[in-house]
From TrEMBL:
Keyword set, alphabetical order: ATP-binding, Kinase, Membrane, Nucleotide-binding, Phosphoprotein, Transferase, Transmembrane, Transmembrane helix, Two-component regulatory system
Parts of the chain that traverse the membrane: 58-78, 84-107, 119-137, 149-172
InterPro entries attached to this UniProt entry: HATPase_C_sf (IPR036890), Sensor_HK_TwoCompSys (IPR050482), Sig_transdc_His_kin_sub3_dim/P (IPR011712)
Name by which UniProt lists this protein: histidine kinase
PANTHER family noted in UniProt: NITRATE/NITRITE SENSOR PROTEIN NARX-RELATED, NITRATE_NITRITE SENSOR PROTEIN NARQ
Keyword Kinase: yes
Record's keyword annotation contains Kinase: yes
Molecular function via GO: kinase activity
Catalyses which reaction(s): ATP + protein L-histidine = ADP + protein N-phospho-L-histidine
Amino acid sequence: MVGALRTLDGMTSTGEEQGRAGPPLWWERRRDVVWDVGIGAVSALECAWEGVGFAREAGVPVVLGVLFGFVVGATLVLRRRWPVAVVLVSIAVTPAVMGFLLGVVGLYTLAACEVPRRVTATVASMSLVATLVVMYVRTDDEAGVTQTLLISLSVFVAVALTVPPVLLGMYVGARRRLMESLHERADSLERELSLLAERAEERAEWARTEERTRIAREMHDVVAHRVSLMVVHAAALQAVAVKDPVKAARNAALVGDMGRQALTELREMLGVLRAPAPAVPKPVAVAVPAPVVEEGPSLAELEVLVGQSRAAGMVVRLDVRGERPGYAAEVEQTAYRVVQEALTNCHKHAPGAEVVVRLAHREGEVAMQVENGPCDGDAGGAGLPSGGNGLVGMRERVLGLGGVFVAGPTESGGFRVSAVLPCASVQA
């Protein structure tokens, strides 16, 4: 009548559960087996004792009555598997006045299991009516009992044997379902917290990777530009050391100044790397802050940057248009680094070429362009190596702020680097 049911312990009685290792058949725990077998044995003994009276009333051998009562009472062992069937058996033997424990425990189990409520109400009503009728009929045979007292007594006994076990079973079942719901919520919360912890760790790792990449770009820009200028000045120093000692001394002083500047900037960045990371509390929902932009170069230092290239012998023209507003720190630093790296590439790949640096402060954006003319073949290079990361780093910087970056050769045989940074990063 009823298929796989949720038992008192919340398990589902299916073939998979029966095939599990552990307690036999449909029981989940071994103590459930001991409890059901024990209470079934008590019920069997009770019904066997009551079967003696039933056999005498029915006019059958006492042995058959005892055997019948024993089998009926032993069906209580099946209460977790087939609770409806157990209650129906107790209803069937109610006229024989046997199965008190069978009926009470069966109704309790039925109400506590995951049986549809309409089924529980129907079976419980049948048990109530059967007990009421049997009590009324059996008490009516006794003399001296009024009809009112007979009906009242029958109703009281029927309600006392039916309603309390049903109410208790419903309470236990509701409490069990509440505990299962709380356990499920706790498990779900634990899974969510674990997932948040993994995501927080991923975000932290991403932030660390971004910071390492940013510092690597900064070190590349500092080392490449400063060292390139030092190499150019060293080559000029070697060329004029004998002919023009005054110019040689001036170039040597420039080389020293640039070396000290490079060391200062490298020391600042290495100090950031050596600084201990701030302690992060253990809770999993950790918000990873955006990388902080440290104090760096700005567009106000662009004239000095161009002057250093001029001092190295490069012909550089600076063309600034528009009034410079107050930009965000990352915009100032990115614009400066783009021009710096472009000038470094001119020192490496276009010695002797004329270079034009253009900077335009427009409404909502700032644009920069570094263009060199054809390389003078007779100028000779300083033998500067190229790592191939200059243009890549510039592109990453500009695209990271939502800007546009374009680089490529010109029709005249030179090379042009252009970048535009949007106003989204401009401070009011």
